């Protein structure tokens, strides 16, 4: 066939350019790689829109996220100062994180509520495990969907150093955290005292709780039911 050369191996085939001239691509346009500047600008615009609506999505709980969370909360709370009934909604879908970072987030929620008179509600969307479940307790109104779960357990430590520092100093810190967290659940639930919650949380088990169980233990104020019939 004129204009075609076939190599010795049947799976190698070459085509001469068409006589009309250079080959031009006529298929769908190639997707352009977005510039980093455009991605940053779009992210900033989305964040500004969420701040304006008073919405924050919480996933990781670590020092970096605690700082970002605190800064966003200050902006949202200050903009709502002087507007009675104005609220901020924190959506929690978190596997947990460090105790110190989680307590820092809670401290900021308490402070913004006190200084700016703003309501801060927490909603579990998916799961709130470990420190995520504790942060939820800082909300004025706590809610979750019927598909969501919580999990409570004791803290995990990875330490290296001198025996005296590990077995005395860090043990003191661990007991301090246990006391704080047990008191948080006792006050928010109003169902059991701190000693009961301490035994319940630090039992050596991972206590996975359904939405209904969380409601019975008063870890949330409401469970938002699914629509009937379900879509799809």
Q: Kindly, what is the distance between the CA atoms of the first and last residues, rounded to a whole number of angstroms?
A: 55 Å
Spatial shape: globular
The proportion of residues forming helix, as a percent range, comes to 40-55%
Give the total of beta strands.
Answer: 9
Q: In sequence order, what are the helices and strands, one letter per element?
A: EEHEHEHEHEEHHEHE
Main beta sheet, described? 7 strands, mixed
Q: Which structural class best describes the helix and strand composition?
A: alpha/beta
Radius of gyration: 27 Å
- As a percent range, the share of strand residues is 15-25%
Count the DSSP helices: 7
Structure, explained:
With about 230 residues, this protein is an alpha/beta fold. Strands 3, 4, 5, 6, 7, 8 and 9 form a 7-stranded mixed sheet that branches. Strands 1-2 form a two-stranded antiparallel ribbon. Helix 4 links the parallel strand 5 and strand 6. Helix 2 packs parallel to helix 3 and helix 5 packs across helix 6. The longest helix has 27 residues. It is globular and about 70 Å long. The N and C termini lie far apart (about 55 Å). About 5% of the residues have low confidence.
Summarize the structure.
It contains seven helices and nine strands; from the N terminus they run E-E-H-E-H-E-H-E-H-E-E-H-H-E-H-E. The chain has 232 residues and is α/β, with parallel strands linked by helices.
């Amino acid at each position: 066939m004129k204009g075609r050369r076939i190599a010795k191996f049947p799976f190698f085939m070459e085509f001469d350019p068409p006589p009309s001239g250079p080959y031009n691509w006529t298929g769908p346009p190639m997707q352009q790689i977005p510039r980093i500047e455009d991605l940053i600008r779009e992210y900033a615009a989305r964040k500004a829109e969420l701040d304006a609506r008073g919405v924050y999505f919480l996933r990781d709980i670590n020092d970096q996220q605690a700082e970002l969370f605190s800064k966003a909360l200050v902006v949202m709370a200050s903009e709502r100062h002087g507007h009675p009934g104005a609220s901020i909604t924190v959506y929690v879908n978190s596997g947990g994180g460090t105790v110190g970072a989680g307590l820092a987030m809670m401290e900021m929620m308490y402070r913004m509520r006190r200084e700016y008179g703003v309501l801060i509600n927490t909603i579990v969307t998916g799961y709130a495990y470990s420190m995520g479940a504790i942060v939820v307790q800082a909300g004025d109104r706590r809610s979750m969907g019927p598909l969501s779960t919580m999990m409570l357990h004791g803290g995990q430590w990875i330490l290296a150093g001198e025996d005296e520092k590990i077995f005395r100093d860090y043990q003191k810190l661990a007991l301090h955290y246990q006391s704080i967290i047990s008191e948080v659940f006792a006050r928010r639930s109003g169902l059991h005292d701190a000693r009961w919650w301490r035994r319940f949380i630090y039992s050596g088990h991972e206590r996975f709780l359904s939405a209904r169980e969380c409601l019975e233990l008063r870890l949330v104020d409401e469970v938002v039911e699914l629509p009937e019939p379900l879509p799809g």
